[in-house]
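Subgroup meeting minutes
Present: P.N., E.W., G.H.
Scribe: E.W.

1. P.N. recapped why we're keeping a running log of single-chain structure predictions: easier to compare across weeks, and new members can see raw inputs and outputs side by side.
2. G.H. added today's entry (387 aa).
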Amino acid sequence: MNGELLLGGLALALWIGAAWDVMRGNRRLASLANVAAPAPAHWPRVSIVFAARNEAATVGAAVPTMLALDYPDLELVAVNDRSEDRTGEILDALATREPRLRVDYVRELPPGWLGKNHALHHGAQRATGEWILFTDADVHFRPDALRRAIAHAEARSLDHLAAAPQLHSSAGRGGHLLGICVGAFSLTFALFLRPWKIADPRSRAHGGVGAFNLVRASAYRARGGHAPLRLRPDDDIKLGKPMKSHGGRSEFALGAGAISVAWYASVGELVRGLTKNAFAGVDYRAWMILGGVAAHGLFFLWPVAALAWTSGTTWMVYAAAVALMLLVAVDNQRFGSGRRWHGLLFPLGLVVFDYILLRSMVVTLWQRGIVWRGTHYPLEALRRNNL
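Output recorded in log:
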């Protein structure tokens, strides 16, 4: 067997496994828009906590959707984290009309913390709910989203429920290229984190989502709140790890149709935004970035290129691998609320995503840390905050 045919066979085997795992796994995830767990005997109090820094453009539209949630016992804790625009003014105006909204101010960032992580920890300390929902200042909610989530979490005896929002930026604000890149990120995220395995107590899979991390307050506080994540730029994803530890029950759900957010407005914003935390996702291990990009090249991108100059049996093997890859990518779009045809251009989006991975590694190593909101965080300190 020649080398090209062997590599094609390996790529085909990989995508057969991915098709079985991803397509079957996605269908096992609960959908917040449709979940129909029975109402609990008592609706526990819920505190929605979010941090806002220079969010004047979005917070005024997002917070009213939180206040419109049809949940019987709800409070909102907004933490204005050193904003330099009208964020505080907008939040204060909303609070004067709505007693369920409390606005706290963080005016100084203590050493050893990333700003958002500290603001969420600060807000959670003031929350009075039995459950805390960590979200972002630009997330929009359907009125029944929280009620469905709590009913599901209580029925399943969960300690943590994360939900991926509908990313409506891919539907037009950033054009089709952004949608293709977001789709590639979504599939790569699924292959890496395997969110359908998070509910399995025997699996080490864990994860979370900044737009919707619902935690049982007692379990969250028993694990130190956000303190174990104080220097994690990927705190939203990593929150799932302590929440699942020591017998905690965690689950991942689909939020399309129930929660939505305009993620990034352009491919440039996507690149810059993910540069600060992509390297953190592999705990600052360069070999994982280099190995991952190499694997993408061999098994995701090379099969597409090989169609141009192979023939016979070898061509058919590569064609089968590419067909399966595109089938998985197109199918995955329905669960991320993206356009199906964007999945057909998954290899293009993957090239951009691989560039982000390499850029994140190079920039972080060059700067010997990350610069976030004007503050430099040394790489040595970031690496020490490993879970």
